[in-house]
Amino acid sequence: MNNILNKLLIVAASLAMSGFCALAQVSFTVDAPRQVIEGNKFTITFVLRNGKGNSFQEPKVEGTTKLFGPAVSHSYSSQWINGVSSSSSSEEYAITYRADKAGKYNVGAAKVQVDGKTYSTDPFTLEILPPDRTGNQGSGGGSGSGVQIDNYDSQRAGKQVSANDLFIRINLSKSSAYEQEAVVCTIKLYTKYQISQFMATLQPSFNGFLIEELPIQASLNNVEHINGQNYMVAELKKCILFPQQSGELEITSGNYDVTVVQYETIRTMFGTMRQPVEQQLSVKSNSQKIKIKALPTPRPASFNGAVGKFTVETEIKPPVLKTFEASTLLYKVKGEGNIKYLKAPKIQFPAQFDVYDPQNNADAKPAGNTVSGTMTFEYTFIPQYVGKYEIPATEFCYFDPSAGKYVTLNTPKYDLSVAKGSGTASQAPVVNDIEQKNTDILHIKTGDLGLQKEHVSFVAGWTYWLWYVLPTLALVAILVYYRKSLKERQNIALMRTKHANKLAKKRLKQAKAYMAANDSGKFYAELLNAIWGYLSDKLGIPVSELNKENIASVLVSHEVGDDTVAMLMELLDKCEFAQYAPELADSGIEETYNKAVDVMDKLETIKKK
Asked: Would you say the pTM of this structure is higher than 0.70?
């Protein structure tokens, strides 16, 4: 009887669990490299999730030879979380190809049927890069050194890393431009070796430019073929530049300390193995010049520095005006170019209006090779008198660099009628000044006011002398405090040390925002900047001279514990590594952030010697 009851309970539980099972959605995706090198083998995998497929149709991949496949594999998983059961399955169709001919090829969709319904993958573009010109020439000849990104044997330990194996290049979207014309600048790292550590010792310089930073993902996730060689590429900096002067302007890439990974072949009882060996390098700054052309002359009188393509519109709010009630003239400029740096146009308001300085509001962001959006100028004015007035039409002039000419836009004039408001202004537009000013002045009171004459010697009282003593003491205290504060402010190192924690908390706040957004790349980059900046301010060492060795020695000289120093070094290593291998550092972001806060709290106990 008990066995029957137990079986019934098991069946009931199974039915209840099946009612809570999460329904899995069928999907069909493709996992493929976007870049391969001619002559190499590669695999494209088509993944069907949560369905049993049949009638699989593979796409045609031009420029390649099919070597094997499709090889079909199956997997299944299930889990029970908070009373909800879920399961998933997948079928993978793996096909191996050999890249035969360099070029870009469009790969169509693969198809599979699940329960009579057809599912398709998204098409994608496959780029086959030419092989290195010196790939079969060893270490001599040609412009390269024989190192190949896909051949560990060519990256042997102890081999000298040449300028062709690792370098930094500045790429500009234009070789020449007009003043204030947008130019995209990208600074890239090209390398044939994997990189384990990377740190900027001197930042790039953009003298003569205004800069609009663009977001980047600093990781070696792309391959480019230049000068007959294949390189792994990482973007170090990308920004939109607006030149502020004409002539030949120079951009520098900055200095960097780089640790590359080479491989040493060792023999073990299990056979031949490769062991990674690190080599430290210093990459010096290079430069790129760009010719900036002056804007054509003569310039229109209404030109105020706008360069790009724009439209303009105006609006008055509220449309009904009353005396002593504020109104606003909205002047909106829309378009693309140096829109964030536009100056407020001059509007001729009637003399009977009180006009305040215009307020600027820029709503613009990078778009393509320039910045686009809206710049709004708000002119607040208050009519003082009843009557009819006019705001004349205005001209907005900008320079169009693509056409090489000035373009003038006209705004409409406004005929305004001002009605009487709740204020005390006269209904007539012209009023006698004295009469208007006397409307709010009371008459002088006459008659017996009951005044009495009384004389007391104030000098004889103690309060008279107290008015001399207290200001004198206050002045002495202010002088002492001022001299002490002035002495501290002259000590730049002391001021940086005192404010180090405050600045670090601001930087950590941005890193915490990236952590909440689960953006590991930006999180680690911001966290590393916060730590370097904090250590520079706290220890009084310029950023260009910071390295792990002198940080450790300074901390030891300040009697910081070995555990704290080791924790700091581990934190720096992880942040630097995460910039080039974010997929390996996605886990433990919150732990890394808490460790950074803990280290800074411990370093706050340092007293500068």
From this structure: no
